[in-house]
Specification:
Length: 501
């Protein structure tokens, strides 16, 4: 007994009590086992932290146990395991883990985790977190995470999703990852969002997957300045292996006719495309398009216009839309395939939206067969706002005085802006007494139109690829834009399509 009292005196001379913080106060509860009461009283002292970097988290009142021999350790371990079992914690996975020597320390760890939002079930999902010291592990890590943008209200959710972070060193492991992300131009205010979305980033080695995936994306033409926004939008790209995930996808898309510079623009705008499974999703959807009659040479244009088509449940959508167009407009499967080639976004367009322009044209006396022909030649028609169509139609009938037949032959008329293109160009034609088709004065650039007026440019009228016709068209509920240019190579058309996505 004298030896124990001397040891008590020595420990008390080393430890001093730390004032409690009201936010994370962890009151000690009396032990159920009276034999441990002496140890409980002995270890009431806490570490003194003269200057804590994370004062908002309460330092524990008990951090170390007594110095024990082998037999005492075994006894303490049994007592602690019994305590955890009484709370519903299964300690089986902790057999190889060094546990604290007293119940008080374990209690504080459990209560600390509960105070940040974890439940007993969460702890059972990853019981190794109970091997982390509150003072040495939990408080510094959680304080740092809050500092870089993880909301305190969601700290429990973060730890639940990535409990391994509690084992990390702030200086050696966490801070370098944050520095790396900032170096990629991930904005400081977005850091919390990125980590909440993909907390495993904190466990990656900088010289491993993260660096190689970034280097490869830059090598195919992704602008280094766009890497930060890409990571913010879809941080999972930093965890993708180049050899098994990114490069095979890029190589396959290139084999379909998409140049790498087009893919780079697609990835910059929609980084999540990199997450599409190549075998189960991308190749399956390409095969599905071909099975519905889409021509192989049109695949590159389709993907450039609507990259999301690679990740949709495409078979179901195509089946539904094909049946709808056949039922309502009598468009056969071949016509439907041509429609998809010209505007692939139509696979995701709601059927009630499609019917509004159709009903408008039917109300103006256009025959259903003619409407079907118009839709196949210019699918953008079914995505237009009826209000704009009314204005353009009124001008066509009252000011231009032309027959509806011309609209059937050139339905792209409705896709041009009435105020900025149709009116000013038609007025110039009127002032010069020129009579021409709708396509002749609308389906060209401003410069080409002026050349035509001056007679400096003579050409045979040609409709050209329909998907480059018409003015800029923004689909309802979609940011994809279809615009017009001429005299472009296939690569330039694809590039413009992707940039405008």
């Amino acid at each position: 007994m004298a030896a124990i009292l001397r040891k008590t005196s020595q420990i008390n001379s080393i430890f001093c009590k730390t004032p409690k913080n009201p936010f994370f106060a962890l009151p000690l509860k009396p032990l159920q086992n009276p034999n441990s009461q002496f140890c409980h009283e002995l270890l009431r002292g806490a570490f003194s932290t003269k200057s804590s970097n994370f004062p908002e988290y309460e330092m524990p009142t008990v951090t170390w146990g007594v110095i024990q021999g082998r037999k005492e350790k075994l006894v303490s371990r049994v007592i602690i395991c019994d305590y955890m079992k009484s709370l519903g914690i299964v300690p089986d996975e902790l057999e190889e883990l060094e546990l604290p020597s007293t119940v008080e320390v374990m209690r504080e760890r459990i209560e600390f985790l509960q105070k940040i939002g974890l439940t007993i079930d969460d702890i059972n999902e990853y019981p190794l977190m109970l091997g982390c010291s509150v003072r040495k592990n939990m408080v510094p890590v959680l304080g740092y995470l809050e500092k870089i943008g993880i909301p305190r209200a969601r700290m429990g959710e973060f730890v639940k999703n990535y409990p391994q972070c509690l084992h990390a060193s702030v200086v050696v492991e966490l801070a370098p990852v944050i520095k790396f992300l900032r170096g990629l131009d991930v904005e400081k205010q977005d850091m919390g969002y990125v980590l909440m979305k993909y907390p495993e980033l904190l466990g990656f080695k900088l010289e491993g997957t993260m660096s190689t995936s970034v280097a490869y994306l830059v090598s195919i033409g992704v602008n280094p300045r766009d890497i930060g926004p890409m990571v913010t939008q879809y941080p999972y790209i930093l965890g993708m292996r180049v050899g098994t995930m990114i490069k095979p996808l890029v190589d396959y898309l290139v084999s379909l006719g998409l140049p790498k510079k087009i893919l780079a623009r697609m990835f910059e705008k929609r980084a999540y495309i990199l997450g599409y499974d190549l075998e189960e999703t991308v190749k399956s959807n390409v095969d599905c398009l071909l099975s519905f009659g889409v021509k192989k040479e049109a695949l590159a244009s389709i993907i450039a216009q609507y990259p999301q088509i690679l990740g949709l449940p495409l078979k179901a959508k195509l089946s539904s839309q094909q049946y709808f167009f056949n039922l309502k407009l009598k468009i056969d499967p071949d016509g439907f395939a041509r429609l998809i080639e010209r505007m692939p976004q139509i696979v995701s367009l709601k059927q009630n939206v499609i019917m509004k322009p159709v009903e408008f044209l039917l109300g103006r006396g256009v025959a259903a067969a003619d409407i079907a022909k118009m839709v196949v030649n210019c699918p953008q028609l079914v995505a237009l706002q009826v209000g704009l169509m009314k204005n353009s139609y009124y001008y066509f009938k009252s000011e231009m005085g032309r027959p509806v037949k011309e609209l059937v032959e050139f339905p792209e008329y409705f896709t041009y802006s009435l105020e900025s293109r149709i009116k000013p160009r038609y007025q110039k034609l009127q002032s010069r007494g020129i009579r021409c088709s709708l396509a002749w004065f609308l389906n060209c650039s401003d410069q080409r139109f002026e050349e035509r007026l001056q007679g400096a440019y003579i050409e045979a009228e040609s409709s050209g690829p329909s998907f480059v016709m018409g003015g800029k068209l923004e689909l309802p509920g979609n940011n994809d834009v279809v615009s017009e240019e001429e005299d472009e190579s296939d690569d330039e058309i694809l590039y413009r399509r992707t940039v405008s996505l």
